[in-house]
Amino acid sequence: MRAKALMLAVFGVGLMLGGCMQTTVEPASEASMTPRDKKLLAAAPYEKVTIPEQFQRAIVAYNRKEQPGTIVIDSDAKYLYYVLDGGKAIRYGVTVGEEALAWSGVAKVGRKAEWPTWTPTAEIKKRMDVPNFVSGGPQNPMGARAMYLYEGNKDTLYRIHGTNQPEYIGQAISSGCIRMTNEDVIDLYNRVKPGAVVVVLAPGQGDSPFGSSSPKLAAAGSLFR
Predict the structure, then answer these.
(1) Which of the ends of the chain has fewer CB neighbours closer than 10 A, N or C?
(2) Does 106 participate in catalysis according to the annotation?
(3) How many other C-beta atoms can be found within 10 angstroms of the C-beta atom of residue 166?
(4) Smallest Cα–Cα separation from 92: which of 59, 49, 61?
(5) Predicted local confidence at residue 99, as pLDDT
(6) CA trace torsion 84, 101, 160, 36 (10° rounding)
């Protein structure tokens, strides 16, 4: 038990965020978009919204110990971090799952898809009036991109994906998955490599105004959805 506690403490130190830091906003750019992206987003069935400044994409100083290319999600603060070289990270504002539906743990990006289709699970269909299948496009709740998280060879059914409800960025409303604006998820998708590690901090354990100051890493596979 002592060895396990020590291991978690080491992980906790590595996972601490750097507190209040100077940020450099990285404005959304169409450079990463394909002609298809531009065409579909021009016909998006939702209104353009202004994302609150604290949830706009930004480059931030980063003192954690993950390797470049790792994704770290602080569900409490509604942030996703993509780790860069040189003590920096790209911070994106996200929509996270409601407390009862959220999960935490460690996974890897098992596959990626552009303008993915959506087949709701039986659990989602019990809670929501949704069709059996939704084709890819701006009307699809999966948005422009999806990254499917796996534990070993098993699909966790948890995704990082776009959204057709950008007004909810910075809130907790989704069915457990991480939602990003379509512009941000396209940007992240182009950076992330298959097999990239994804660390999701458990609710209440992120280093944010809503969590503790010493986050702990939940056991891998906990509450996967």
Answers:
(1) N
(2) no
(3) 23
(4) 59
(5) 67
(6) -150
What's the confidence (pLDDT) of residue 32?
85
Quote the pTM value.
0.80
Please give the backbone phi and psi of residue 189, each rounded to the nearest 5 degrees, phi first. Answer: -55, -40
Q: In Å, how far are 33, 46, 173 from 111, measured between CA atoms? A: 19, 27, 25
User: How many degrees, rounded to 5, is the angle at CA 62 between CA 61 and CA 64?
Assistant: 165
- Cβ count within 10 A of residue 29: 11
Q: Looking at 57, 78, 145, 161, which residue is catalytic? A: 161
Report pLDDT digits (tens) over 194-224: 999 999 988 776 655 433 333 333 222 222 2
- Report the C-alpha gap between 44 and 197 in whole angstroms: 31
Whether the Cβ atoms of residue 44 and residue 162 lie closer than 8 Å to each other: no
DSSP letter, residue 134: B
Catalytic hit among 60, 107, 177, 217: 177
- Asked whether the beta carbons of 200 and 115 are under 8 A apart, the reply is no
pLDDT at residue 64 in the model:
80
Encoding tokens for residue 217?
């890493």
CA–chain centroid gap for 6, Å, is 28
Per-residue pLDDT tens digits for 79-133: 999 999 999 999 999 999 886 667 789 999 999 999 999 988 887 878 777 888 8
Q: Which structure tokens are listed for 40?
A: 């579909």
Annotated catalytic residue 20 = no
Measured between alpha carbons, how far is 138 from 140 in angstroms, rounded to an integer? 5
